[in-house]
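Lab channel / #folding
Pinned by the channel admin:
"Please post every new chain as: sequence first, then the structure tokens as a reply. Keep commentary short and put observations after the output so the thread stays searchable."

First post following the new format, from NK:
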Amino acid sequence: MINSNRLTVTPDLVQDAVNNLLDQYGDDVFFCLDDAVETIGKETAQIVKEKAPVETGKSSRKGRYKKSISFKKDTKSKNLGEVRGYVYAKYPESSLAHLLEFPHAKANGTGTVSPQPHFQYGQDHVNQNFQDQLKKTIEEV
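Reply from TO:
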């Protein structure tokens, strides 16, 4: 005669166990998302820096705009369950970013200044690589 111990599991216990597993998985994916934003953000900032124009001639500002390009993550958005990263030009060079990226009227009003699209290269990098980086990071967990 075989004596077997029976374990009775109620639906509530199964539901709690599945919910705990899903919560843990959600936390893991959130940390992977945070890591992917950090990785791609730093790569993007480097690409934008490489493509950014440098002043030529007798300007005393040579390279200051290019050096001001940086990446930061928004720490406030983590409380909302979001991860946001920004590639930007630090103050006081920030006012140049839009003027360099897009065409605009010359100061004397005769014609327009040609655009020097360097942030667009960064946007293209994010669009092409972010999902792959996120998948790669999640698979490592």
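NK: Strands lie at 69-74, 84-89, 104-105, 112-113.
TO: also worth noting, The two ends are 46 Å apart (CA to CA).
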